[in-house]
């Protein structure tokens, strides 16, 4: 009986040690909390909006898919008076597909904390109330050097590498990370500098992808033919055929942007 009790005690002790070790491992591998992001102090929205910005690296989200990482630009305008919903800044975003088709549109923004943090803005379609606007934070900005680091709010998703770095989401609001430059020509040294600023601010840089600005004046039709129709009725056609009927641009405009006047 004594041996049985000792055996049971040894089993219980071993189990408790194993449980304790497992709990300790869990503690060791727990992700550190995301660093609280601060934004630019003494921010001048008029100066910031005085010229276009060119995105040279950016994260994928629902309105900036990877196949639109061409010629991405942003232009801001300080409005003379607030809109019906209280927006004070006009936003014009444009980007392109590889073949030159333009995408983008006009939005509106406002400063969410004009007295305390002027560099915290929110952006939305102009027809929506401000409650639907998503965060647009100017994390770093230097007009003299011509750069800006923009985040879609506070990053809350750990990188998974235990490095304390975090990222935002990939939806509409609370998403995105951008490295802007005043110059459309890529400056790798400047980009590297802003990436370093982003890491110090707590951002996971694995989400960033390059934006190509080398062919921004190019918008051309496909030279080769392409299939149209269904499996039981397929034909080879070209952009000349698309141009014969305007309505064909609805289905084939991405292949024939010049013909369909989408450039």
How would you portray this structure in words?
- This protein is 20% helix and 30% strand.
- The strands form three sheets. It has an eight-stranded antiparallel beta barrel. A two-stranded antiparallel ribbon has the order 8-9. Strands 12-13 form a two-stranded antiparallel sheet.
- It is of the alpha+beta class and 263 residues long.
- It starts with a helix and ends in an 11-residue tail after the last helix.
- Mean pLDDT is 89; it is low at 1-28.
- The protein has five helices and 13 strands.
- The protein has helices at 2-28, 45-48, 188-200, 239-243, 249-252; strands at 53-59, 70-78, 89-96, 102-113, 117-124, 134-142, 147-151, 157-158, 166-167, 177-181, 208-210, 226-230, 233-237.
Task: Quickly describe the structure.
The chain has 263 residues and is of the alpha+beta class. The chain has five helices and 13 strands.
Question: What attributes characterize this protein structure?
Answer:
alpha+beta; 20% helix; eight-stranded antiparallel beta barrel; disordered N terminus; 263 residues; globular; two-stranded antiparallel sheet
């Amino acid at each position: 009986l004594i041996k049985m009790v000792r055996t049971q005690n040894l089993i219980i002790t071993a189990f408790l040690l194993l449980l304790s070790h497992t709990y300790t491992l869990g503690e060791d591998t727990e992700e550190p909390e995301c660093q609280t992001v601060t934004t630019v102090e003494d921010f001048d929205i008029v100066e910031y909006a005085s010229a276009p910005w060119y995105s040279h690296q950016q994260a994928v989200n629902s309105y900036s898919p990877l196949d639109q990482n061409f010629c991405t630009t942003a232009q801001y305008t300080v409005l003379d008076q607030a809109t019906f919903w209280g927006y004070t800044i006009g936003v014009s975003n444009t980007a392109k597909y590889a073949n030159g088709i333009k995408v983008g549109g006009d939005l509106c923004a406002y400063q969410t904390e004009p007295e305390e943090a002027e560099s915290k803005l929110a952006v939305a379609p102009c027809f929506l109330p401000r409650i639907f606007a998503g965060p647009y934070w100017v994390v770093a900005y230097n007009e003299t050097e011509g750069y800006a680091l923009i985040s879609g709010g506070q990053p809350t998703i750990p990188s998974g590498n235990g490095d304390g770095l975090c990222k935002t989401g990939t939806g509409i609001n609370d998403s995105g990370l951008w490295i802007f430059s005043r110059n459309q020509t890529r400056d790798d040294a400047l980009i590297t500098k802003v990436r370093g600023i982003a890491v110090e601010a707590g951002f996971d840089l694995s989400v960033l992808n390059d934006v190509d600005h080398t062919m921004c004046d190019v918008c051309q039709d496909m030279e080769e033919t392409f299939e149209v129709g269904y499996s039981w009725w397929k034909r080879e056609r070209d952009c000349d055929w698309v141009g014969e009927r305007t309505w064909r641009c609805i289905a084939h405009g991405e292949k024939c942007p010049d013909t369909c006047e989408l450039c």
